[in-house]
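Quick note —
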Amino acid sequence: MQDNKNFLGTEPVGKLLLKLSIPTVIAQLINMLYNIVDRIYIGHIPGEGSLALTGVGVCMPIIMIVSAFAALVSSGGAPRASIYMGKQDNKSAENILGNCFILQIIISVILTAILLIWGRDLLLAFGASENTISYATDYMHIYAFGTLFVQLTLGMNAFITAQGFTTFSMVSVLIGAVCNIVLDPVFIFVFHMGVRGAALATVISQAISTLWGKKTQLHLRKKHLHLEAKVVLPCIALGLAAFIMQSSESIVTVCFNSSLLRYGGDIAVGAMTILTSVMQFAMLPLQGIAQGAQPISSYNYGAKNADRVKKTFRLLLITCLSYSVLLWAAVQLVPRVFVSIFTADTSLIEFTA
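Predicted structure written out below.
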């Protein structure tokens, strides 16, 4: 399929959506391993695992905001690149790629400076206590230096997916996740670095994922590595919706945690953590399917193949509705099964269910 440069406009839509969605769904699940693996290892640090886990948990809303800035650029730039590819205008698509690449680097430098200068104040505002702030700052200080790799990994993978090369994107994420799983116990337990080791493992893994070689149709060219308002602004405008959704989710998490702790106690915070985790796992397949459909829709929109755009949308709608109804029924029938995945505490299971 990848030998045919126009496969997004010629392959049967159903077959194409299946081929592109499976790797993107897998990539979504693998990407979630970064945070889950860190939490598992950190929670088992002898003597201080509980406090360390809580401290790192406070960092999650900030990490979500960092990811939101990556989405601001990539969620707007990648579909626009696909549209130009559909018009057989790869030069304009590569110009968008180069502009977005530079913009992500600039944003990364600004975010890194903010996290290093005001990281402690932000963490205290987001729910860290005197008991957990040291763990939170240790983790965030090292993670801040990896902001560039996080931005580029998330951002550039979106452009790879937009070209229809979802398997390459999946492998890139997989390489980073495997490295993280291997490096976490080495840095945390062998070198006794604690939460700093977990952060360092994440940064190194993201760097490896970023630098992993990828052969695609669009390439970064020196002549496009600059900012043009007429290129960048439409990308930002299109990506603004994804940015607002992700950043507002971070803000809502902070509000939930502070309110639940005050009015419901630890069990309420634990219940919301589990509910959020179940929701994220439930949403991952939907996000993966939508990502798989995006290059098909954008490419054919650019190629003026209206019938294929409509057919892709209908198929995506039917698939997502079917999945959502089945998931809703399962949660209604056996809520405790979903809750027990994350805890063995009987009272917490009952409260959350």
